[in-house]
Amino acid sequence: MFKKKAIFTFLRAQVAAFVGGLTDYGLMILFTEIFKLHFSFSILISGTIGAIINFSINRFWVFKNQSGYSSRINSQLFKFALVVLGSISLKSFGTLILQKVFQIDYRIGRLITDSFVSYGFNYPLIKYWVFKIKKEQKAIESN
């Protein structure tokens, strides 16, 4: 039972990441190509918007952690903001390195960087730190 639940949680988290990521990626291209912002700034803006979408989906659907405790959402928002700050920094830096050092187009470099950041940084921190459910809360929610 535990493994099945963990697999479904992981798959739902990937859907949330995909929707937030698609928004993020599309806006990055829009801001870079249409508004002529440097892709690092575009990643900052688009990453923030994508993060808001991702947080909402994760909180209310993936981890179903929408309890009415306002202090809990404040804590989750703060932690999520720290993860997003790290994620945007890693994505910007990784994309810039791939573009400057290896001459990879920023759109491709961003996809490469995202795959590492999403699975190796975002998912573990979001699951085990941002939306971690304490044992006491698990007992209350299962009743």
From TrEMBL:
This is GtrA family protein. Keywords: Membrane, Transmembrane, Transmembrane helix. It is a multi-pass membrane protein. The chain crosses the membrane at residues 7-31, 37-57, 77-98. It is found in: Membrane. Residues 18-131 form the GtrA/DPMS transmembrane domain. It comes from the Bacteria. It holds the Pfam family GtrA_DPMS_TM. InterPro entries: GtrA_DPMS_TM (IPR007267). It comes from Flavobacterium ginsenosidimutans.
